[in-house]
Amino acid sequence: MNRPLSIAAGCLLISLGLIVLKHSQVVTGGTAGLTLTLSYIFDIPFALLFFVINIPFYFIAVIQMGWNFMLSTMISVILVTIMTAADRWLPGFEVNIFIGTILGSVLCGVGLTTLFVNRASLGGVNILALFLQKRYKMNPGTVNFVFDTSIVMLGFYSVGVLQGVLSIASVFIVSTIIGLYKKKILAGTQLAANTPRGTAAG
């Protein structure tokens, strides 16, 4: 599968995972998890909030990882924004909280890993994790877990204690999946950093 299709597939998996988590009343980490939490608190559409929150991180992506990575990240955010917006046209449904936590987290974990391997991300903590791995060889799964757990703590306020505990479990599942592929992710970030700034990678 070529890179554009892989990125699109990763975005689809993440979007499905986020929809499942949302209908399970469970949040996760990263900008996606922060957006889910804020959407619960302020009753703002996820898709709109997700796009706006990621705007500042595009500039960080350019500085730390180059234009190619930034453009791939921007495209990924737009795709997830569009795909998750489709949830408003789906019939109302609920997902068992335990099944939803596992299924949604696995989908997000595999989707994020697919993006990372293909030199893209969903911004926010993802960019920091990839930068720390490239510069200091830190496990991106561990970095995601530490920062995402902090974000999920806010979820206790917005979704309740049980959902908050399961949200931490969601972060653990996503981070573990990402950590399993840290070598492939590192190869992707090194390629992104070494790609000429004005060149589009295929």
TrEMBL record:
Membrane topology, record value: Multi-pass membrane protein
Q: Does the keyword Transmembrane apply?
A: yes
State where it is primarily located. membrane
**Localization in the cell:** Cell membrane
Q: Superkingdom of this entry's organism? A: Bacteria
Keyword field: Cell membrane, Membrane, Transmembrane, Transmembrane helix
| Pfam families in alphabetical order | YitT_membrane
Membrane-crossing segments per the record: 40-60, 67-85, 97-117, 164-181
Q: What is this protein called?
A: YitT family protein
Taxonomy-wise, where does this protein's organism fall, top ranks first?
Bacteria, Bacillati, Bacillota, Bacilli, Bacillales
